[in-house]
């Protein structure tokens, strides 16, 4: 065990959820004094909000959560203490005190999923930030906290110097989820027409990445109009409003743009169950459907034979691993002068204003609010 330096305080503030449907409360939480080999203590710079945070607080998430938890899972910070054997990050870059990093959920490395299937992001024994009880040591397992504990088996990637804290933070859930989804989907061909459902942060990033990957045409579907304009800035050739059109109108438009065939690739970053039915209908025969946005408990009816008759390939994708974080950071580093990543991160709030930030995200007044821990 390695002692945490004396200059690190004994406690810090964090926004805690004790009951679904109730506001977050800023509480004082103990900071661990000892670090296991490979563990890190990070002083958080900021935590950007993700739609999942809103779902968690409102009690609408379709997964097990062990309350009380520290909210927030999309964050970045600087390393203030290291356990032994933490000399490099997960891609071999030197890891020093003071470096800004992003980090992943854990995976055990010893189970069927990790070892045989080689799908560590799906490890059943994973510990994910924001979902582990904060009442047990090491307590600091959520992003809306002045300090966060990084598990020894959490992947970690050093953030390139010219990426801002909010944009680095955004890569640690939103963008790495998009990058991982694209990896699960496979190659996008230059002949492909890609329809992206959703103009939230993930949908906008997906429109940009589809274009970067060479898609011939990218069609975004979403709302409100300001988001559609942003989709165009990210590279969408066409952006359709769900407010001013029906599902039939949108299908007609997609058919017009694809010689009556339907799109080669559909991507669901919308999150509404109804979007899935619509998306299935927009794919051409033999097309692929990447589903990332569905995290709630809603259900729909659909005819499974559609998948057979139209030879559809449906690909789900959850989270992402260290390679996706690295790739997301490298994409930002290379593209941030061309793509408006900074427009995805909106106003800055303090930890005490976390509930307000969640309200503003829920009502779509904000794309991705930033909870800054840098003011103190
Ligand atoms: Zn997220
Ligand atoms: Zn495992």
Description:
This protein is an alpha/beta fold. The protein folds into 2 domains: 2-158 and 346-372, Quinone Oxidoreductase, Chain A, domain 1 (Alpha-Beta Complex); 177-316, 3-Layer(aba) Sandwich (Rossmann fold), CATH 3.40.50.720. It has 10 helices and 18 strands. The strands form 4 sheets. Strands 5, 7, 8, 9, 10, 17 and 18 form a 7-stranded mixed β-sheet that branches. The chain has a 6-stranded parallel β-sheet with strand order 13-12-11-14-15-16, with helices on both faces. 51% of the residues are buried.
Topology:
Elements (H helix, E strand, L loop, with lengths): L1 E2 L7 E7 L7 E6 L3 E2 L4 E9 L2 H8 L10 E2 L4 E8 L17 E7 L5 H4 L31 E4 L3 E5 L6 H21 L7 E5 L3 H12 L4 E6 L2 H9 L4 E4 L5 H10 L6 E6 L4 H10 E9 L13 H5 L3 E4 L5 H14 L12 E2 L4 H9 L7 E3 L4
Parallel strand pairs: 11-12, 11-14, 12-13, 14-15, 15-16, 17-18
Antiparallel strand pairs: 1-4, 2-3, 2-6, 5-7, 5-9, 5-18, 7-8, 8-10
Helix pairs in contact: 3-4, 3-9, 4-5
The structure holds zinc ion (2 copies).
One zinc ion binds next to helix 2.
